[in-house]
Write a structure and sequence with these properties.
By secondary structure, this protein is α+β, with helices and mostly antiparallel strands. Helix content is 46%, strand content 11%.
């Protein structure tokens, strides 16, 4: 039977968002464990299919190394609620421990999505990506300007972006708006209905197929 996200998983997350405290969580720990087991089963199947799309993702990668903890690190955050209200999974050679480009799945009652790229690369990698866009702009645009790609993902996320041109690039550079970026990621929203469907894994993999050329471009940039 093809795994899908259970309605009970979404119900747990929805109620957690209204009861984000330790007392409620402990009373509902079994519900959390059942929801996490559902996500792990789903992610294990997703890994097997993703490994056929992207050879760098091993079919032996364990879902436990991809699914992120629900416990929030509140040490440096103004938001002191102890739990995330979503399940997240990261897919790279090292699972959720990204050391370069990769894929991401977020499961949330209202904000589910898939994403991929390289979030906030460190200095040397950021410099290399900008250089690759500068030197191989044609390859870059063949990916991001593809009509089917744009229809599915839209444009690059611009949450992290410089206000001025990065060092070494002129303001009139034809790709200056891309060179200003500090993250290089695309995302696509998913509905609860899509994730609760028997075709959920295939639908997500269709998105990852579209992302793979962009991931490869980024990997080549930093290799």
């Amino acid at each position: 039977m093809t795994p899908m996200i259970n309605p009970a998983t979404f119900d747990f997350l929805q109620e957690l968002s209204s009861n984000n405290n330790r007392e409620w969580f402990l009373l509902n720990k079994l519900r959390h464990d059942n929801a996490k087991a559902n996500v792990l089963e789903f992610v294990n199947t997703l890994i097997l299919k993703l490994s056929k799309i992207d050879p760098s993702i091993s079919a032996d990668l364990d879902a436990k190394n991809c699914v992120m903890r629900i416990y929030r690190d509140v040490r440096f955050s103004k938001n002191k609620t102890p739990y995330k209200t979503n399940f997240g999974a990261g897919f790279s050679e090292n699972g959720k421990s990204f050391k370069g480009p990769g894929y991401y799945l977020q499961i949330h009652p209202e904000k589910s999505l898939i994403a991929g790229g390289y979030w906030m690369p460190e200095g040397d990698h950021l410099k290399s990506i900008r250089q690759e866009i500068d030197y191989n702009g044609t390859d870059f645009h063949e990916i991001i300007d593809n009509k089917a790609f744009i229809k599915y993902f839209g444009s690059l996320d611009e949450e992290h972006k410089l206000k001025t041109s990065p060092k070494g690039y002129q303001p009139d550079h034809p790709d200056i708006e891309y060179l200003k970026l500090k993250s290089f990621t695309f995302s696509h929203p998913l509905t609860k209905s899509e994730l609760m469907s028997s075709s959920a894994v295939d639908e997500i993999c269709n998105g990852f197929v579209r992302l793979y050329p962009f991931i490869s471009f980024l990997r080549n940039s930093v290799s």
